Request: fold
Amino acid sequence: MNTTTRLRRISILGVLGAGIALAAGVTGAQTLKEISVEAGRATKVVGHTSSGIPIEEVSLTRHVYYGDLDLRTHSGAVELERRVHETAQAACKQLDELYPLTTSESPACAEQAAKGAMEQVHALIAAAEQGEE
Reply:
């Protein structure tokens, strides 16, 4: 089995595992309040190196629950931001573990993943402050 096939299988298993873990946490028809944090790493084939080796891109999405937080308060908003940053770091660390042949990209990966999710966070906080939550 070549490296590309093995990496694809690993990424599929990781996504399936994350989906199963998320599904296990859902009870009944309860609507979860959550934010998606997407960490990215090179695994969808997006090109080839000069020697013909495929360059791939992979991503891992995790969800941050915030239903227990009052986003109208400073402490609630700060806690949600903390959770997003922590989740981004954990997702990128997992990518480092799944793809150990690449150099560690966790700091840049986590920063980018958190930045993308912060747009959702700031919109939720603004809506909560205006009483729209």
User: Anything to note?
Assistant: Helices lie at 3-25, 74-98, 106-129.
